[in-house]
Structures are given as structure tokens and as C-alpha cells.
Amino acid sequence: MRGMKCPSCSGLLPTPEPRCPSCGLTLQKLDLKFGLVPRHSRFLSDRSGKLDVAQMEELREELRLFERKFPQVLFSVFVTDLPPGSSVREYGFWLANRARFSTIQKSPGDNFDLLLVIDLAGNAASLTASYGLEKYVSEEDLEDALAALAAGARAGNVPDGIRACIKFVTRRWRERSKEARRARATGTVEEMAA
Amino acid sequence: MRMRRALRHYCALGLLLCASVMPLLAQGDLPTPSPAEPLFQERPFGPLPPPTEPPARSHVLEDAERKPIPRAWLIGGVLAAAVAFLLVLWAAMRAWRSSNLFDQQYRFPRIGEAAVRLGGKKSGGHSAQITLAPRPDQAAVPNETR
Q1: Residue at A52 is within a domain
Q2: Is residue A13 part of a domain?
Q3: Which of B114, B117, B130, B145 could form a disulfide with A146 if both were Cys (CB 3.0 to 4.6 A apart)?
Q4: How many domains does chain A have?
Q5: B39 touching A, CB under 8 A?
Q6: DSSP class per residue in B35-101
Q7: 8 Å CB contact of B123 and A109
Q8: Would you say residue B11 has pLDDT above 80?
Q9: Is A97 near chain B, with CB under 8 Å?
Q10: Contact at CB, B106 and A177, closer than 8 angstroms
Q11: Which residues pair with A129 in a beta bridge?
Q12: Å from B85 to nearest chain A CA?
């Protein structure tokens, strides 16, 4: 729980709160804000219509490969054009909870999914981790992955950015997985998030 | 009519006879055939020809005469081969890791029950956000931090 922040106001959440003590955010409020869950697919969804079919197929293949390396983690990418004034971080949090990228129902602690939302209209992106990854992946890891995305998409080439992000996450998550196994072997899993 | 036909027959017979006799007459002018001389004249006990000169020295030197390769070259060659081998190995490792050739899998230990936050059953909002550079197809507008 240490260091968890509200996806809306970035205020610290010292305890598991049903609503943010700073801004009052709840998932239900975001339901009212964003409405119906948009159509999505398991690995890659493009609601903006700006990616061509060949690019999408290549990216799906990379995400499938990622899933083969990390069988617990479903890395989904959602490309969209959000209405002006929307927060992509709020949207990522809402979509990660409301969408069904994975068909398997898991308990919160067993959910290791990862969602990358790219808002092309607002030129912003967010990366949301599920409960299962919280102990192993820090906010800095997520920021670094987004920095890789931004560097890859510098020339406006979003697929290259996504590819760079997948590559970065693969490398970093591999390290984190090894660290977690070592920590588990020495009985220090709880100290990992420090 | 009959006379003409008979005359024609006699002419044809005459021509045939001439044609058959002509080669016999022509043969009389040709020289009589004589046995051909042998192609190789045998000289079984004649004087031996002078011995031919030995062939010129070949450029290929004998092993003993070959100059030894300088040691620096040998070391350089071995080092170059080792570097090339390491480069190939490194490229193969990279390709193997990126394609997950042997299906290596990485897992995270299960953490147990998670503390549900903000009503989210899958994620508690552990996330990060970044502002991307505007795409070239977009009009130049001030970058709004959202």
C-alpha cells in the first residue's frame, strides 16, 4: 500500500480507501464520467482508427510474445481519442477495472494485468498496473516505460512508441520477476516495494 | 504414233546404257590405289632423343622451405576469430531472448489478498502518466498538461 496515489489528484492513499480523501474519486464517479465501456480486444484496440491493419497485427504479435514470457501478465494497449478535458490516467484506471481484456475472472491479488492507454487527441498516455504487480513494480518503473514510449513515438510514430514500451517493460519486468523470486527465496517479499 | 513411242523407248535405253558405262570409263583415268604410309614411323633401335629439360621450379614451395607465419599474425587471427565468435554469440543471445526461442517464462509470486481501493476490483490506480510530443499531423498548439 505504500506510496499508492489517487489516479485523479495524485494524493497519497495511506490506507485502502473506497474513495479518495482528497478529491473524493471513486470508480462509480468515473462510470458516470466515461459512460459505456468501449469495444476492446484482448491485446490491442484502436478506437482512434489511426493505426493500419498491418501495424496492429505486428503489435498484437509482440503482445502475444510478451504474454508467452509473462504468462500471468496480460499487457493490453488501448489507443483512443479522448474528449478534451479528460484525464488519461483516470481513464486508464477506469478501463482497467471495467473492461474485460482477460476472460478469466481473478481475485484482485491474482490480477497482474497491465494496461497502456494512449490518447492521441490529447497527446498523453497512461500505464496502469493491477493489484498483483503493485508490490513488484514501482511508479518509477511505470514512468520509465512511458518515457520509452514517448522516446519511441518522438516522430509521431505511435506503433514504434508502443514497440519501445513493450521492449522496455519486458526487460524491466524480467528483472523484477527475478528479484521477486530471489526475495521470495530469502523471505523478503514484503520489503520489495520499499 | 507407234514409231514415235518405240523411238522414245530406244532413246531412253540408250541413255541408260551410257549412264551405266560412264563410271567405268571414268575409273580408267583415276590413279591406282596404293597402301597408305603408317602414321608413326617406328625406330626401334634408332638413336635416343636428347633428354628434355626438367620443368621450371614450381611456385609452390615445399613445407620445409615455407616461411613461418609471424606470431603477431597468428595472435591477431585468433583474436579476430574470438571477437567474431563472441559477436555472433551475442547476436544469437539477443535474438533468442527477444524471440523467446526456448519459451522461458517469468512469474511473479502471488501476494495474497489485495487491499481494494477506490472501488476498483482489478486495479487500485497504481499508474503513471506522460504527455507525448504533438504528432507532425497535428496543428502547432500549446502543449496542454492534463
Answers
A1: yes
A2: no
A3: B130
A4: 1
A5: no
A6: PPPPSS---TTSPPPPPPPPPPPPSSPPTTTSPPPPHHHHHHHHHHHHHHHHHHHHHHHHHHHHHTT
A7: no
A8: no
A9: yes
A10: yes
A11: A114, B126
A12: 25
Put simply, whether B57 touches A (Cβ < 8 Å) is no
B117 in reach of chain A (CB within 8 A):
yes
* Nearest-CB residue to A20 (from B106, B118, B134): B118
The shortest CB-CB distance from B123 to any of A124, A130, A174 is to: A130
Q: Which CATH number does the domain housing residue A44 bear?
A: 3.10.310.50
Going by C-beta distance under 8 Å and a sequence separation of 6 or more, which residues neighbour residue A4? A12, A13, A134, B117, B124, B125, B126
Q: What is the DSSP letter of A5?
A: B
Q: Judge: A125–B136 Cβ closer than 8 Å, yes or no.
A: no
DSSP B26-43: HHTTSPPP-PPPPSS---
DSSP letter (8 states) at residue A14: S
Across the range A1-24, mean pLDDT stands at 82
Lowest average pLDDT, out of A74-78, A107-111, A130-134, A160-164, goes to A107-111
Q: What is the pLDDT of residue B28?
A: 59
**pLDDT for A128:** 94
Return the exposure string of A67-88: e unless at least 16 CB atoms fall within 10 Å of the residue's CB, then b.
Answer: eebbebbbbbbbbbebeeebbb
**Environment class of B18 (CB within 10 Å of its CB; exposed 0-12, middle 13-18, buried 19+):** exposed
Full domain range(s) for residue A100: 27-191
| Residue % of chain A over a pLDDT of 90 | 62
Q: Give the model's confidence band at A154: pLDDT under 50 very low, under 70 low, under 90 confident, else very high.
A: confident
User: Mean of the pLDDT values across residues B57-75?
Assistant: 75
Closest CA–CA distance from residue B90 to any residue of chain A (Å): 16
Q: Any idea where the domains of chain B sit in the sequence?
A: 70-101
Task: Please say if the pLDDT value at position A94 is more than 80.
Answer: yes
Give the pairing type, strands A44-46 and A75-80: parallel
Nearest CA in chain A to B136: A156
Specify the pTM.
0.68
Instruction: Kindly identify which residue of chain B lies nearest to residue A128, measuring between CA atoms.
Output: B127
